[in-house]
Amino acid sequence: MMLLKGFLLLSPWLLGAYAEKQGNGNITVAFFPNSEEATCKKDNIANAASLTTDTIPTGFVCFNLTDLFTQPSDNGSQGVWKIPDDMTSQGVDYLLSNRGSYSADTNYTNVWYQQVNQTGDIKNEAAGTWVLYTYAFADCVQNGGDAYNPEDFPWFETSCQTKDGGECQQLPQPVKSFAIGPAAAYNAGHGKCEVWAKLGGASALNRRTSALLVVAATMAAFLML
Length: 225
Hints:
Elements: H1 15-22, E1 26-33, H2 42-47, E2 49-53, E3 61-64, H3 65-69, E4 75-78, E5 92-97, E6 108-116, E7 127-135, E8 156-160, E9 167-170, E10 177-182, H4 184-190, E11 197-198, H5 207-224
Antiparallel strand pairs: 1-2, 1-6, 2-5, 3-10, 4-5, 6-9, 7-8, 7-10, 8-11
């Protein structure tokens, strides 16, 4: 699926309306320093470092904030996390906004997130198309080791659609990495979509392992056709 055309002429605040007009869903995530207040103001969102995609990946796709926003281009692609070389997969094609506002020395504890379904309809807290994962450690690591209590350094997962204009979430630790994955099997496994579920919400299973199992099952079914 191609990225949304003309994005450079739009602020992230307008993406929901644009997607609805085009009948094509997307997910946008933006990051703000912990010193900023009222992060859902239009001006703040329009100037924040953000990523937008309308690609539905086949599995778990991880991004390190510093690697992502210090690259020399606004356009890019990221592959699915640890998929065997002989297995077909779809990663994420993305477009960045305001890379210059990002600083590796800044703590980003505020996240603005908007997910519009593939139908283009905005239905707050209805099941979404993507899962967004946020981590306090690089490389989408859930636990930094014995020195870090998971309750104090948790990861979060959210897979519901958002209200018009998106939503903000303040996290207890700075975001070092995040991931995007497909939500269909995730929501089915949880029995619902999740809204900023701490430590993965209903299940304590390792989400990266679960994502790989979903991809493996999907590809196995595909090969049997």
